[in-house]
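Bug #77: duplicate submission created two jobs. Keeping one. Sequence:
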Amino acid sequence: MFVHKDIIIVFLFLFIISLIIIILFLRDQKKITKDLQNFTGKPIKSSKYFFYNLMEPIIFNINSIISKQQSKFKSERLRVYFYDYFFNKFPDPLLIIDETSNIIEINEVSTSLLGKNSKGKNILSVLRIPELGDLINDSVQKKKPIESEVRLIYPKEKVFKIWISGRRHVGESQLNFIRLYDSTSENNIQNLQRDFIANVSHELKTPITSILGYCETFISEKLENKNIKKKFFQTMMNEAQRMSTLVNDLLSLTRIERIEHSPPSQSINLAEILREVSKICSERAFINESKYSFILPKKKIMIIGDKSELKQVFLNIIENAIIHSNSKKPIQIKLSHSKAGIIFSVEDFGIGISNQHVPLLTKRFFRVDPSRSRESGNTGLGLSIVKHTLNRHNAELNIQSTVNKGSKFSIIFNKTTSSLLQ
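Kept job's structure:
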């Protein structure tokens, strides 16, 4: 069979053309594969391919898929970044433990509680909470979060509210999430409130019982002796005055605590206030006859403060010295300048106070000698009021005392504070 030469040439031509087309098509495919492998985030352009008209729908779909995946990736990356940041910057200690109770992750706050090298260690060995193991097991068995209040016993005793998530599957692991909230301050405040209520109840119980007893006597018995009646009425009046003083001190303490962090704004003269205090002391009839003397500068000493509050502070400290010190020499009440600032001091030369009692003097209802203090009408709140008032004035209370030698109470209005007017 004879094949014409022209036909052979045509077939060869077509074969070569087809081969070139196939090669170009394969090259475009390799380019697409390479562009996908080396993807930089920019859309793929169809114009750089030989068969761009043919590739354009494919490239469009590829770019569309890539765009959706990029958007999803950005969203997930933002989510991961947020949770990572949230976990690390959360103000309370957060921990993640595995099924063997080993710590696999902690946030930044936890490092101060557990130490930097706590990851990988068993939580029961680094967190000294006796009931922690039982709480973790309880959350795992119940398969739900649990909450409890626990007490850390080392390195520093603290009270925490703990939340344990219960074991959760994360990939191939089973993890438990723990949050610790430091409730030490809240716990202390609650204890203070309970102690405060108990102390107030105790302080009021005695005078109320006494008054009720005398009232019952008046009702049930006929008292004809005027001296006995007078004595009964006098006792009842003393107890009522004692309750009135206690209530007034409680109101003063509540008020000063409420405004303790709001500094006063008026300009006052300390020397003038103390001259008024000196006049008040001279007019009062104190239980004992302790002598005292005021040493005051003639010139003005101006500060920013509250006149009535500081007058009460000065009176409180002076009266304590006069009534309780049993000073062998005249008590020295002095206002002066020093390098530290303006100093008001009350120095007695009496029985003094033991060192163990000095830090407790500003505590509510504390008395060095409870029986003697109650007889003198002392409520045990005076120096607590003084402390909070001086905090409001940015001043310091300094107490120095030696048993059988005397005590010195000093108030320092510091020159470096804004409360002092130059």
